[in-house]
Prior knowledge:
The protein has helices at 14-25, 37-41, 47-56, 79-92, 105-118, 133-144, 147-150, 168-178, 199-206, 241-249, 301-334, and strands spanning 29-32, 61-65, 95-99, 122-125, 131-132, 157-161, 183-188, 210-215, 217-223, 226-232, 260-263, 270-271, 284-285. It is α/β, with parallel strands linked by helices. Helix 4 links the parallel strand 2 (61-65) and strand 3. The model has no long low-confidence stretch (mean pLDDT 95). It comes from Marinobacterium aestuariivivens.
Amino acid sequence: MTPTDKVGLPALSLDQAQTLLARSQLIPLFAHAYAFHLNFRFNRIGIENLLQFAHDHRLNGIKIHLDDGEALSLRHCDDSRLMTLQKLARQLGLEIHVEVSSTDRAELGAAVRIGRLLAATSIRCYPRYAGRVSEIIAWTIRDLRQLDTLDPHRQFRFTLEQHEDLKGEELVRIVEAVENPNLKLLFDFANMLNAYEQPLEALRAMAPHISDVHIKDAAVVSEQGGWGHRACRSGDGELPMARLLLELLLLGDDQPQVVAYGLEEEVDYYAPPLRFADEPADPLIPWRNVSETTLAPGADLDALLAREIQDARDQLAHVRGLLAQLRRHAERFLQGQSPE
């Protein structure tokens, strides 16, 4: 079985159908800065534009990396500018979630300082170490045990993302070893592929701890006995997006467990395989840089920048279409009819 096998929508109990119907109408969607990666990289848009996009499209907030925007990024803002951004987000009724590509103390400390000035509510991180899987797990547990010191008043929800190297059960092992109630998991629709794990398997392994999500689509690239992924326009790839959304929306009994879904369209982003079918018991993970979409030589930059903004709008429309499909699926069960 491969991740490209078709996955349909499951039968629902009446309780599940009622839950799905209600939650699919109130899903907390967030604009994600990576959907505008090139526009940020070439300083065509800024943080204010991302906030305005979220407001204009009736979203709940934004997810943004400390380094989105290069020299104009959050990392390079002075305190006055960060407070101005906080005020703008508050005026627009939007949450800010900060992201950082490390779990080391210096990077988490920078995210906490900036997050406080922004009145952010969440900080995403992931380990980016080279070493044996067992070492990466141990180093990440060590890092994340510092969260009580970095955030003693527990202002933030910290999320650990599955980011192409660790499997779902390995991430769960980290969270349960750290034992911080404010540490949760962020489920990305595609990143488990690079760790040679299928999307639904990863979701079910991580399910008890998932609070946040990155929504994207991708084509699966089979190579060297593993899986890479090439992100694409939502709906053009091979991921079971509707089924993943359904299962995520059903997490949590009385209240939704997942509190933020980031719209992370990443057209043409490529990530190679890091885990393999025939890997040893404790495989070695190589060093890798932070995520970046490669520009082809001679690419028409202006056309790419315009397309990127349209792709972000189209992803939102596609996701809202999937949510409408899920509502129809739930309604059929509530009406006592057979599913689609």
